[in-house]
Amino acid sequence: MKDRPTLTTSSGAPIADNQNSMTAGPFGPVLMQDFHLLEKLAHQNRERIPERTVHAKGSGAYGTLTITKDISRYTKASALQLGKKTEAFLRLSTVAGERGAADAERDVRGFALRFYTDEGNWDIVGNNTPVFFIRDGLKFPDFIHTQKRHPRTNLRSATAMWDFWSLSPESLHQVTILMSDRGLPQSYRHLNGYGSHTYSFINAEGERHWVKFHFKTMQGIRNWTNAEAAEKVAQDRETHQRDLYESIERGDFPRWRFCVQVMPESDVGKHWYNPFDLTKVWPHKDYPLIEIGVLELNRNPENYFAEVEQAALSPANIVPGIGHSPDKMLQARIYSYADAHRYRVGINADQLPVNKPRCPMHTYHADGAMRLATNPNPDAYYEPNSFGGPVENASVKEPPLKLSGNADRYNHRDGNDDYRQTGDLFRLMTNVQREQLFGNIKAAMEGVPLEIIERQLQHFFRADPAYCAGAAKALGIDFRPQMVAAE
Length: 487
Ligand code: NDP
What we know:
Blueprint: H1 35-45, E1 58-67, E2 85-94, E3 109-117, E4 120-127, H2 140-147, H3 158-166, H4 172-179, E5 193-194, E6 199-202, E7 208-217, H5 226-235, H6 239-249, E8 255-264, E9 290-299, H7 304-309, E10 322-323, H8 328-344, H9 420-428, H10 431-444, H11 450-463, H12 465-475
Antiparallel strand pairs: 1-2, 1-9, 2-3, 3-4, 5-7, 6-7, 6-10, 7-8, 8-9
Helix pairs in contact: 2-3, 3-11, 4-9, 10-12, 11-12
The chain binds NADPH dihydro-nicotinamide-adenine-dinucleotide phosphate.
């Protein structure tokens, strides 16, 4: 045992015996004064923090973002200047399953990216889909409840999912992606990432463009059928964690082409779709992808809990040159994600190594549980002050954004076409992909009441009559759609 460090308590006192509790005589009882035993048991009881309500099961790795194209006319963000390399962290996850759930399940995948820029942490908390199930944050708790367990049966409920989806036509686009071949990726390396929301780029002249972020896998898209995944899960519940960890360990670093779509600020209002609607894409023919760099993952975390479980990413985290947009879902997530971390990890989560900005950080926040940071200037603990404390810097102010309208609760379904882009997606699928889509829908609708199925078939019909016919055939239902025009 020579040359090995001495085991200590948390307070640093050396431990003489880590095998035997202190007892009164060889058969016990155990003495209350065995503080080493008490500390070990008490610590063990506190090893878990609340798991994420959504995206509980995930994997993470560090890497590098390298910029290969000059886009300074769109953004002044330091991390996006030609030739710049920035340290990155990516957490990939499923949405619905708990922390011990199998990786190879049909689900959306989270694609939560952090760039440790020299102007602060910039997070893009995206998914492997360009759109989402809802477009108003008011519906987020309701939607997530349908993905989680039924309160009485403690089972996931296909009825709840399809009931909600069929009553929320804005979900159709995302439901179609989920039920398509891409709803069950073979690994985290073989999927695209999308920032999904519309953000803004701001250049050095203070001009704003709207932007969408895309990360295209350089490993190629690879998916499993339900049957293939069932076989995998029977043997290994950690397929995606294993694949990501092992590929990085052997030096086979996953990479994504970083692309953007850029829209002039004045284009808003020119299209049939609202560019801030999270259930819509910007068609590539309107806004072609501009390739601007490469994201590479090349380092596994040293400690899963410390770095992946406690990672606290949030779309609130932006840097000069990147801004938010009027997207209602983005606005809800700016609050919701940061709040989730305050509850789950704590008010000082940003002091943990995975969350701490790599650039200097100067705030007037004080105290709170697990505070590590000290104030190097103890007299400047409020603002304004006369003691040299940090001050605001007007040069990073965003240009004003013109908004108008009465404050009200506007019906987001009024006159909103939820079918056209779903139909476009359906029409670009091959026959094999369409058959998979129909089969996956049939499997996912097992046990759902006919009334709900028929309501959903009507949505499929509005997207494309062949979509409805194929799904109805797979389900063995003689469905007569109402011949109404798409709204
Ligand atoms: P394009 O033909 O230019 O693009 C089609 C896009 O669809 C490609 O990005 C492709 O990704 C992606 N795709 C193909 N199969 C699937 C699938 N099963 N699930 C999800 N994405 C898939 O057409 P448009 O830009 O006009 O868009 C048409 C439809 O494509 C949209 O309504 C939308 O459903 C879907 N789409 C569009 C995206 C966009 O940003 N415009 C992004 C992703 C999907 P890849 O290149 O990696 O094969």
